[in-house]
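Exercise 7.
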Amino acid sequence: MRTCTRERSPPRSWRGRSRSRRPPSPRSRAGPRSRSTCTGENLYRLDGFAALIDRGGVDILAPDIQKVGGLGDTRRIAAYSDVHSRPLAPHNIAGPIGTLASAHVCASIPNFLALEWHAASVPFFDELVTLGRSVIADGYVMLPDGPGIGAELDLDACRRYARPGEPFFDEPGPS
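Solution. The predicted structure, written as tokens, is:
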């Protein structure tokens, strides 16, 4: 089984990432690498990922779809990485709307590996959308059939779980 190391060096440290990917020398007793390098949640746009791929500093790309430049830029990164035989495992620290949007992108790219998800401990995660079922069940996202991403925010649920004292979208906050 291969393991994966994430973010082994600072986001802009191309040399550090290239060094960390250097195969062992013929004199090394380490043998072939059994650990993949997964990185990218702090990179932006295609040029950041292309530079990393071109320098050989990554095995698996992990763009944060909400930060990288959006759905279109993620697809461009996926296409470039696919040409270079690199899979994508997008970073996803989003709510249910962002998770569904990310899942739609992932379903459309040939080199998708896995979608990271951080909201397992949020008990009201599924209540925030009008999906009528769990967004993630048994580790899978079933893409909805509805228009757009297939669900909308449930604004009443969002208000119910909003942090007290914080403004809610375009509504004025407390004075």
